[in-house]
Design a protein that fits this description.
By secondary structure, the protein is mainly α. The protein is built from four helices and no strands. The protein has helices at residues 24-29, 67-73, 78-85, 107-114.
Length: 115
């Protein structure tokens, strides 16, 4: 499965990226890529079949997964966990690397900053 090994310099998941690089509508459309932690019953996963958050550097029809999204939200996405279970995705993709920049804690923090 193709993915960058670390967030790119303009990755919206990075806390040091300036706001306004992408329109708020884009973040609203990508909300289906994440689970819900605010559920009073302990949170829910992104449903099976939910899209994956693609890297903004990928092109239509040739999308690849965002490293920042995988590290922050990947564990709450059934499709991502399934890809790890069957060996299509390295489980290391679900955690930031040692030399990575600080990432937003979750999708809500990302929206607060950019959306």
């Amino acid at each position: 499965m193709t993915r960058p090994r670390r967030p790119c310099p303009e990755c919206p998941w990075r806390c040091d990226v300036e706001r306004g690089q992408f329109p708020p509508e884009r973040y609203a459309a990508l909300e289906t890529t994440r689970g819900r932690r605010d559920d009073p019953h302990g949170g829910t996963d992104a449903p099976l079949g939910s899209p994956w958050f693609a890297c903004h550097k990928s092109r239509g029809g040739e999308e690849f997964h965002c490293a920042g999204w995988l590290a922050v939200e990947g564990r709450s996405h059934v499709g991502v966990r399934l890809a790890v279970a069957v060996g299509e995705l390295d489980p290391e993709a679900l955690s930031p690397g040692e030399d990575w920049p600080e990432l937003h804690a979750d999708y809500d923090a990302l929206l607060e900053r950019h959306g």
